[in-house]
Write a structure and sequence with these properties.
The protein is α+β, with helices and mostly antiparallel strands. The chain has one domain: Electron Transport, Fmn-binding Protein, Chain A (Pnp Oxidase, Chain A, Roll). It is built from five helices and eight strands. Strands 1, 2, 3, 4, 5, 6, 7 and 8 form an eight-stranded antiparallel sheet that branches. A hairpin with a 2-residue loop joins β4 and β5. The termini are far apart.
């Protein structure tokens, strides 16, 4: 049976930090807007406090999470056990996208391995922390991180640069909301 927690317990912290993959979901306010769900990895998650977490947002083909957070702040992170005992943990809350110019960005970004493609830190204040059984989640064996994103960033830096890519591809969400 699932449980709701007031804070991230030591047990949940251990579980969350052990996961190599988590999912981020956001949605615009418009009923005809697109709900976004993105997988995240590359050691980009951190626990800031009992009801506060963050993750490093890396350059990608879209900017939905940033745009949705700017519009309404709603966000949920989901962690699934793909190895070991079954468990799903969801972290619901209000989030904000902190770009490198934000005064809190340097201290938060220092919590993560260096990623040249980092474009923001997403900081969440949690209002619901819950778990559920995870009995229906398949077992998968972790083989390692993919190198394609860091390799792509390195190639982009050598050409027009990641900043130019962001200006061209991350200025607006697929629904036309402001991005970066």
């Amino acid at each position: 049976m699932g449980k709701i927690y007031d804070a991230i317990s030591e047990r949940l912290e251990h579980f969350l930090l052990a996961q190599n993959l988590f999912f981020v979901a956001t949605a615009p306010l418009a009923s005809d807007g697109h709900v976004n769900l993105s997988p995240k990895g590359l050691d980009t998650f951190a626990i800031l406090g009992p009801t506060s977490v963050a993750y490093l947002d890396l350059t990608g083909s879209g900017v939905e999470t940033v745009a949705h957070l700017r519009e309404n702040g709603r966000i949920v992170l989901m962690f699934c056990a793909f190895e070991g005992p079954p468990l799903i943990v969801r972290l619901h809350g209000r989030g904000e996208a902190l770009e490198p110019e934000h005064p809190d960005y340097p201290d938060l970004a220092a919590r993560f391995p260096e990623h040249p493609g980092a474009r923001a830190v997403i900081r969440l204040e949690l209002d619901r922390i819950s778990d559920s059984c995870g009995y229906g989640v398949a077992l998968y064996a972790y083989q390692g991180e993919r190198s394609q994103l860091p390799d792509w960033v390195a190639r982009k830096q050598a050409k027009e640069g990641v900043a130019a890519y962001r200006r061209a591809h991350n200025a607006k969400s697929i629904d036309g909301l402001p991005g970066l």
